[in-house]
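May I ask for whichever protein you like with its backbone structure tokens?
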Amino acid sequence: MPAFKKPVSVLVVIHTPDLQVLLLERAATPGLWQSVTGSQEEGEDLIDTAIRETAEETGLDARRYPLDDWRLANRFEIYPQWRWRYAPGTAHNTEHVFSLLVPRPLPVAVAPDEHLGYVWLPWQEAAGRVFSWTNRAAIRMLPGRLKPA
């Protein structure tokens, strides 16, 4: 495992056909909610990062459901309190957006070292609860990304 995190990550917005969105509460910062996120590991394809992070953070197997690579990347400044995880001088991260369509709100098994709990919310409410602007923007784009049945 590398000494520092790679400044490339995924955001996986997990949702149902009627746009219920799964949010996870961060263990290190209670009250901060987010979708699945995580850094790409060396030699890993982004799709594999999305599958791995979904499994680690929720217990869900993303290979069982439609996983959509939005081909959208957001570049943002890494919060100063989290920069120690990255190589010295690294101040920005590039986040690649994915969505995972599940048939209904599913029970998840959160990683207790990362998250305190989870909630399924209507997309509008979920967008209002997340702390990250990239996460908020992705949730707000969900209705326009759904393919007609």
Observations:
- The longest helix spans residues 46-58.
- The chain has one domain: 8-145.
